[in-house]
Amino acid sequence: MSRIGVYVCHCGENIAGAVDVEEVRKYAETLPGVVVARDYLFMCSDPGQELIKQDIRDGLVDRVVVAACTPRTHEPIFRKAVENGGLNKYFFEMANIRDQDSWPHWHDREGATAKAKKLVASAVAKVALLEPLEDRYVDVTRSSLVIGGGVAGMFAALDLANMGYKVYLVEKNPSIGGNMAKLDKTFPTNDCSACILTPIMVQVGTHPNIELLTYSEVESVEGSIGNFKVKVRKKQTYVDWDRCTGCGDCVEACPARVPNEFNEGMDKRKAIYIEFPQAVPKRAVLDIEHCINCAKRAIGTEPRIHSKTGEPILAPCEKACKTGACDRSKPYNPDGEIMELSVGTIIVATGYKVMDKTPFKEYSPQSPNVITAMQLERILSATGPTEGELRRPSDGEKPRTIVFISCVGSRDKNHHTYCSKVCCMYMLKEARLIKEKYPNINIYIFFIDVRTAGKDFEEYYNYCRGLGIKMIRGRVGAVDELAGDRLRVRAYDVDLGVPVELEADLVVLATAIEPAPGLEELGRKLGITCGSEGFMKELHTKLYPVETPVKGIYIAGCAQGPKDIPESVSQARAASSAAAVPLAMGRVLVEPLISEVDQEKCSGCGICVPLCPYLAISMVEYREKPLSRINEALCAGCGVCAAACPSGAITLHGYTSAQIHAQIEALTAGIGGGANV
Amino acid sequence: MSSAQAASLVINLTDSEPGFADEIKELGGEELLECIQCAKCAAACPMVLAGFSFFNKRIIQAILLGLREVLLDDSSIWACQSCNRCTEVCPREVNPFEIIQAMRRVAVREFALPTMSIEGLKSLYDTGHAVYLAGAGNTRAKVGLPEKPPSTVAYPEALKELQAIMRKTALADLGIIPMNGFGVADTCEV
Ligand SMILES: Cc1cc2nc3c(=O)[nH]c(=O)nc-3n(C[C@H](O)[C@H](O)[C@H](O)COP(=O)(O)OP(=O)(O)OC[C@H]3O[C@@H](n4cnc5c(N)ncnc54)[C@H](O)[C@@H]3O)c2cc1C
Ligand code: SF4
Ligand code: SF4
Ligand code: SF4
Ligand code: SF4
Q1: Is residue A8 part of a domain?
Q2: Domain for residue A495, yes or no?
Q3: What is the mean pLDDT of residues B168-184?
């Protein structure tokens, strides 16, 4: 018979404020196998842990239950205490009477106390049946994968590379740089975005430890911390990048025009194109969907021969290319190439996309003079469609009155309920850049709240007000098109308490920041679910802000939620150091809480194989019979297979059927229409 | 409410005066653009309690938006009690009271001032008191005070000095008080 010790924690007032701790303690003493039950103000404190250790040393107890907070943060602490006391650390069970009891039932002392008793009884029932388990370690592949080459991904990659680890940087676009590459100047210091970003891009592009995989996407991820196997698809560029020098001659020659994504659709690029002038790597890609196959030069076909000259008839791009990189006769595989990478840790830095204007019918999105703030960034940028000249899209005239509308699609139940966090500041920035250059342009910013909570941001805001930028509290209700390409803006000035309207030449919508397209799918490949807003969820908002529920996978930048550059960079550098820890340690602990197949019981039905989300199960031939086998390194201990096996052949250590049944029985004792009532 | 009436409630910012804020700054409201519309001044202002439609915060927002005509059509600015509470409490050192003074300067230049104020200014020029009770002499004597208070009323030289100062102000340019140093009552007509 085991000798169980139960330790009930007050957690200051967190538990004791809603649960009668003494009653729970007394009740615990009555449970089968319990030899001692104590309570303490903070069980996780040194003296609290000492209570447990002393009872073990005194030979009083050989199983331990702590009724306290969440095992997510505190289980490791108590396991350690149990181990230091001299027991196998898996002879321990936690009852969460705080997060699952006192907090949600704060105003029901009686109910909360009754529930605490049940939770304790259930933990006691389980702990009696626990078996000793041994920790294992696996060696770590000392390399990392960073997904997304925006400013966050680049900094994460650079840090890891500078620490001496091999880094693969996968970026879906032809060039790294991300959204920051599109910005003109950047708050709060107004330095030119390209000027501060280009050197970083070049460092990333030339770092000996970084393998840049642009125009690539992650296909699949297998394995676990320390040993991930990642398949990456290098999309087909139809240009030989080993030869391409990025001279742009093919681009010049190409006649096919396509809306230019980099300039937010405000001008055209060619079918063969270089993403932007500072692109890294500076290489051309062919957008095969929009290529019109000039001179009937479909990819992978031999050129026709000119009847008179006897020369091959080439497409303009090929003809222009001096290096032979643009050879259309090659039999390119449209699916590109699959690369297999082995990495120890992964950082997700896939960033964001801004909402398009079309859903906002009340703001006349059909008007070319209603634009998004990202489009204005491109208009202000020297590499943009107007080469930095402030001109309105409809007729190229310089606007005299500009209206900014905040929170478009943010703080809005029809779209996104969250605050996009950066728009207040970038609206002020864009308004300021314009006002400093053209003091006579009238600028109005309509806002709900001005949120400028960052270092030096309030000063920035006050400076902008000082420039005479007119701030009006009140969400714009309507933008109507008027003759002469003008727009009528209607709103209610909350400060004056009157409806106002005005005519503008350009209306700028601060549209919401959304997760990058495909983030949810990427999450599925990685085994991480996104939060309700679609961004990747961190493990713990305060304590583990760059970790995810999957060990070895970290997040940084706007993939986790809207944020500005300073924050994205700080988070990237935090993620890189977190991701470096397992690489530096060289081996990682694998908890023995994993599943095992009893080959005597396995019928070979194979039901478990497709159910495992970590692809850890395979069928192996054993005495001429297929039997299921679980790869220890891959198993995450989720228990899906154990629950599904019709033969009861799979045991999840630490959560055996007997243990779980004992818990359920303890929890349901006295409930329902059965004999117990 | 008819739609015509409703439409007239709407303030059209396109008709606003872009240079209005600068004008107010030049006339003494230097810190105008520092205002962040927090409304702390309004919370301290007796004009708000008395129900005036434009008071410190609202006057400032109207100026920031260039609503010169709107403010000239309203007499609230003359209701400021000069108590200076707003200036005391403003967290951004805007000095709202000075802005109201500046707005009054604008209004005076446009003759957009109520008759009461003209009377007051005239009386100030004539007697040195904005409000002077001419028949108060007897009452004063009854309670043992000198018939004339010890002010410009008792000291004609002081009144002359005051009048000289006032003639140097825009009030004289505007004809609200006489331009030259002649007698008082015969020239003062507004
Ligand atoms: C109009 C506007 C103006 C702004 N102005 C400022 C400013 O002045 N100052 C400031 O501090 N902040 C500003 N910001 C915010 C700033 O843009 C972001 O903080 C910053 O770009 C975030 O960087 P990131 O690396 O997290 O994301 P991103 O820049 O979005 O980079 C993500 C990268 O990941 C790639 N990617 C996405 N999905 C995948 C995938 N599945 N596989 C591979 N790659 C993928 C993308 O192609 C992209 O290159 C502004 C934002 C907007 C909208
Ligand atoms: S064949 Fe070459 S030049 Fe012609 S559209 Fe395609 S990429 Fe452009
Ligand atoms: S940052 Fe400002 S504009 Fe953007 S959603 Fe938040 S409050 Fe609205
Ligand atoms: S004047 Fe000062 S107190 Fe009044 S609203 Fe402006 S900032 Fe606030
Ligand atoms: S000085 Fe005028 S505006 Fe300021 S609080 Fe007093 S009455 Fe109001």
Answers
A1: yes
A2: yes
A3: 71
A69: domain CATH number is: 3.40.50
- Which mutation among B60, B85, B89 tests ligand 4's pocket best, with the greatest number of atoms within 8 A of CB? B60
Cis status of the peptide bond prior to B18, with omega within 30 of 0: no
Distance (Å, whole) CA B14 – CA A505:
11
pLDDT of residue A650: 96
- Is A188 inside a domain boundary? yes
In tens, the pLDDT along A531-561 reads: 999 999 999 999 999 999 889 999 999 999 9
* Mean pLDDT value across chain A: 95
A497/B10 CB distance under 8 A: no
What confidence tens digit (pLDDT) does each residue in A110-159 have? 999 999 999 999 999 999 999 999 998 989 999 999 999 999 999 999 99
CA distances in angstroms from A451 to A254, A290, A309, A405, A424, listed in the order given: 46, 43, 69, 14, 6
Separation CA A463–CA A188 (nearest Å):
11
Edge-first strand order for the sheet with A337-343 is A216-224, A227-234, A337-343
pLDDT digits (tens, 9 = 90+) for B46-59: 999 999 999 999 99
Q: Where residue A520 falls among pLDDT bands split at 50, 70, 90?
A: very high
Q: What is the mean pLDDT of residues B128-149?
A: 87
- CA separation for the pair A173, B57 (Å, rounded): 51
User: Is the residue at A667 inside a domain?
Assistant: no
Q: Rounded to two decimals, what is the model's pTM?
A: 0.83
The confidence score (pLDDT) of residue B182 equals: 46
> Are residues A325 and A268 located together in one domain of the fold?
yes
Report whether B190 contacts B175 (CB < 8 A): yes
Number of domains within chain A? 5
Under 8 Å between Cβ of A230 and A522: no
Of B9, B13, B35, the CB nearest to A502: B13
Name the residue with tokens 């891009």: A201
The stretch B125-148 carries a mean pLDDT of: 88
Ligand 1 atom at minimal distance to the Cα of residue A152: 25
Asked whether residue B3 carries a pLDDT value surpassing 60, the answer given is no
Q: Does A439 touch chain B (CB under 8 A)?
A: no
Of A133, A163, A181, which closes a domain? A133
A212 lies in the same domain as A277 = no
Q: Return the pLDDT at B138.
A: 87
Q: Do A250 and A320 reside in the same domain of the chain?
A: yes
A80 and A16, same structural domain? yes
Q: Can you list the domains of chain B with their CATH numbers?
A: 3-109 (1.10.1060.10), 115-187 (no CATH)
Task: Using DSSP, state whether A406 is helix, strand or coil.
Answer: strand
Give the pLDDT confidence score for residue B1 in this predicted structure. Answer: 44
Q: Which residue, by CA, sits nearest to atom 7 of ligand 2?
A: A272
The CATH number of the domain holding residue A193 is: 3.50.50.60
pLDDT at A633 over 90: no
Co-location of A63 and A149 in the same domain:
no
* Residues A277 and A391 occupy one common structural domain: no
Of A182, A180, A187, A184, which is closest to residue A428 (Cα–Cα)?
A187
Q: Is B8 on the interface with A (CB under 8 A)?
A: no
C-alpha distance from A432 to closest chain B C-alpha (Å): 15
Domain housing A623: 595-653
Residues A218 and A242 in one domain: no
Q: What is the pLDDT of residue A175?
A: 98
Nearest CA-CA distance, residue A502 and chain B, Å: 5
- The answer to whether residue B180 scores a pLDDT higher than 80 is no
Q: What is the CATH number of the domain that holds A644?
A: 3.30.70.20
Q: Which of B25, B32, B36, B93 to mutate to test the pocket of ligand 4 (most atoms within 8 A of CB)?
A: B36
DSSP readout, A159-188?
HHHHTT-EEEEEESSSSS-GGGGG-SEETT
Pocket of ligand 1 (CB under 6 A): A 147-153, 170-173, 178-180, 183, 186-187, 217, 349-352, 354, 373-374, 377, 422, 426, 429, 516, 518, 522, 557-558, 563-566, 568
| Cα A275 to averaged position of ligand 1 atoms, centre (Å) | 16
The whole-number pLDDT of residue B6 equals 52
